[in-house]
Design goal:
By secondary structure, this protein is mainly α. 80% of the residues lie in helices and 0% in strands. The chain has one domain (2-410): Growth Hormone, Chain: A (Up-down Bundle). Mean pLDDT is 85; it is low at 413-418.
Length: 418
């Protein structure tokens, strides 16, 4: 029992750092856009496209990477992905024009999209059922801590002194170290290891549901929760990435804040998401995934709406972003990780997580930031902020129809494999 507990937290800790650097590498450029856009002579639409091309690549590889990890081994996906996204983060500092910028970020999106579903499926399987929400929530806090709290401060402070390129150069070494640590300390989860071993021996391997029914890769899309999680993902990805792309510009150009002050205001979203991912995921172990998601949609969307319309001082803007981060960002472990992984057998969890992650990235991250940039060019940056707020509120409709998956509420333990 003690050995299992120890390894469970080892998995979460190592992946917490890797996921944190995924967020750091992905979001640094958004905080540096006030410096990058003038130097590279880019428009708001092109800034949105930079976010979109990464999101499109992220989305495609999340779907394929999750399925490949289920079948051939999750370590074989996670370790190369970590090395590649670290190298492309460093290479971002070398770009000299919009086209180079786009190509580098597309490669980064492929690597990061491959990492996520395999990593979360591993954590969900290794975690004890009664605290699975807490464990996945702890892992997910790496994103707001590194990408939304530390990154804006690091980017704006270092960038204002040494220039934005050095902000990117310094991100390479941690990624290499994390890839080595994962290779040394993390093993394949049981469901994947059994599937690989059966293939080596030429044996048939059937995946069955908790009801004893055989489940195939093609049948994953027949689950209502997977479809609803995917629709929620589109909404919340739109919310996250439109804010990520344009909130710093909104603060500097509409509210006329210095870039360093804007960086600190943006950190409120990271603080909120950190608390929200931990609290909402943990609470959902007790009250259920569905009530927690409905609460997040309503309160997070209203807080974001207030931020978009407010003319408040920096302190109030920070607080509104904190609420947005707590409820909108805090809901990510629920609809992207917990509900999909608990809906299907764990042997297909990578694919089940990859579908809402991938489609959400393709649409919410891949297309909507570019549309947000067009809206900002035509109607102003406040209109882009309204797009983010409305997207979160629309997610409420889909949350209402989710089928509850929390083990405590269902009164059963989810099986690990067929």
């Amino acid at each position: 029992m003690e050995k299992r507990w120890s390894y469970e937290y080892t998995v979460v800790l190592i992946h917490w750092f890797i996921w944190g650097f995924v967020a750091l590498d992905r979001l640094l450029v958004t905080y540096l856009f006030p410096m990058i856009l003038p130097e590279l002579k880019m428009s708001f639409t092109q800034a949105g496209f930079i976010m979109s091309i990464l999101g499109l690549a992220w989305g495609v590889m999340a779907i394929f990477g999750g399925g490949l990890g289920d079948r051939f081994g999750r370590k074989k996906i996670i370790i190369p992905a970590t090395l590649i996204f670290s190298l492309t983060s460093w290479a971002t500092g070398l770009v000299r024009n919009f086209f180079q910028f786009s190509a580098i970020r597309a490669i980064m999106g492929c690597a990061e999209g491959s990492y996520y579903p395999s990593a979360v499926a591993t954590i969900a399987e290794e975690a004890k059922a009664s605290r699975r929400g807490l464990m996945v929530g702890l892992h997910q806090t790496g994103f707001p801590v590194w990408g939304m709290f530390l990154a804006p401060i690091y980017a704006t402070q270092v960038g204002s002194v040494y220039g934005w390129r050095w902000v990117m150069y310094l991100t390479l070494i941690p990624g290499i170290i994390l890839a080595v640590v994962h290779w040394r300390f993390i093993r394949e989860p049981r469901s994947v290891a059994e599937r690989i071993e059966a293939k080596k021996k030429g044996l048939a391997y059937k995946i069955v549901s908790e009801k004893g029914e055989q489940v195939t890769v093609g049948s994953v899309l027949r689950y209502r929760n997977i479809i609803l999680s995917t629709l929620m993902s589109i909404c919340f990805m739109t919310n996250l990435w439109v804010l990520a792309a344009f909130a710093t510009l909104f603060l500097t150009k509409v509210h006329n804040l210095p870039v360093t002050t804007a960086g600190f205001v943006m950190s409120g979203q990271g603080v909120g998401a950190l608390l929200g991912m931990f609290c909402l995921a943990g609470i959902s172990d007790r009250i259920g995934r569905k009530p927690a998601m409905i609460l997040a949609c309503v309160v997070g969307g209203l807080a974001n709406l207030w931020f978009a319309l407010s003319g408040a001082a920096p302190g109030m803007l920070w607080f509104l972003l904190l609420l947005t981060g707590f409820f909108c960002g805090g809901s990510f472990p629920l609809y992207l990780s917990l509900v999909p992984s608990e809906t299907v057998p764990f042997a297909l969890a990578g694919l089940a997580i990859g579908i809402p992650t991938g489609v959400g990235e393709l649409v919410g991250s891949g297309i909507l930031p570019t549309i947000g940039g067009m809206i900002a060019d035509i109607y102003g940056l406040r209109a882009a902020m309204l797009l983010a707020a409305v997207s979160a509120l629309v997610a409420t409709i889909f949350a209402l129809f989710i089928i509850e998956t929390a083990p405590r509420k269902k009164g059963i333990a989810i099986p690990a494999a067929g």
